[in-house]
Amino acid sequence: MTRTRVSVVDYHTGGEPFRIVTGGVPPLEGETVLDRRRFAREHLDRFRRLLVFEPRGHADMYGCHVVPPNDDGAELGVVFFHNEGYSTACGHGTIALVTWALEEGVVEAREGEIRLVVDVPSGRLETWATVAAGRVRAVRFRNVPAFVWAEGVEAAGRVVDVAFGGAFYASLEERVEPAELPRLIALGRELKAALEASHEVVHPVEAELRDVYGVIFWQAEGSEPLTQRNVTVFADGEVDRSPCGSGTSARLALLDRRGLLPRGAELRHLSIVGSEFTGRVVGETEVAGRPAVITEVEGSAYRTGRAELELDPDDPLGEGFLLR
Question: Which residues are catalytically annotated?
């Protein structure tokens, strides 16, 4: 047997890793991004394990396969993956992907603001990259419609709100600091399991967009501009080091519903490591009769390295393992 070799480029967005596959993986088959996501889950999951699991990755690793868009209305398509499987949305990953595409010449870069359209599993995203002195300084994306699924839901002895921002997130106020992480990880897992056991959380239009992806713990930090710090526990106890892009959209939907953030006003969304996204509600719409909002989220990504990762056919640990 020969060695398996996979080429990757690594980025971080607000401290959250993002591993972009650039070679060594067979094409993901299908007509749409959702088709290709299903194909990856059913036929190519060994590559996700190889790239995410230890010793080549870790329990908090995130990454993607770059795929063709659904049609010629977009420049890029993407299938996201993490320690548990394949997500429907990833804001920090979208920011990193667009940065990579411009830095690597996949899409031609020029000074000023560049518009790119990206097909993700949850839908089609418009993005705008700011390029100055040949560097991508920031990326802003306009997300799929975000909406409040339910407020005041009881789960595991707590009361949470559930909103969709490309994926479904439960949200509740808690103290957010690194010393609290073990408790928050355990509570996040408990809340996610309790919500999914007692409620069918599913998108009203696309049934494949379902279940509680993450739990957002947040605390107030200031009012001018509105500033909140959060940590999102998602997938199988994975901790987002960034302020969570799709989670920011979910938070914006809740803040808008309660009249706490005027349309167009900025939310400074801080992470548990102090990195920052900015977000705002820029419009309104509806999803199957539900009131929904259009949100934009902005952040910056930075390349951290590139590698060719290998699997020795004689390695007794195979594709790896996770310790949690």
Answer: 90
How many domains is the chain built from?
Answer: 2
Residues 172 and 223 in one domain: yes
Specify if 324 maps to a domain: no
CATH code of the domain containing 85? 3.10.310.10
Q: Give me the tens of pLDDT residue by residue for the chain, a chain 324 residues long.
A: 789 999 999 999 999 999 999 999 999 999 999 999 999 999 999 999 999 999 999 999 999 999 999 999 999 999 999 999 999 999 999 999 999 999 999 999 999 999 999 999 999 999 999 999 999 999 999 999 999 999 999 999 999 999 999 999 999 999 999 999 999 999 999 999 999 999 999 999 999 999 999 999 999 999 999 999 999 999 999 999 999 999 999 999 999 999 999 999 999 999 999 999 999 999 999 999 999 999 999 999 999 999 999 999 999 999 999 987
> Are 216 and 295 part of one and the same domain?
yes
Report yes or no on 319 lying in a domain: no
pTM: 0.97
Whether 41 and 85 have beta carbons less than 8 Å apart is answered as yes
For 309-321, give one letter per residue: b (16+ CB within 10 A) or e. Answer: bebeeeeeeebbe
Which DSSP string do the residues of 215-249 spell out, in sequence order?
Answer: EEEEEEEEETTEEEEEEEEETTTEEESS--HHHHH
**Phi and psi dihedrals of 64, rounded to 5?**
-160, 155
Domain for residue 22, yes or no?
A: yes
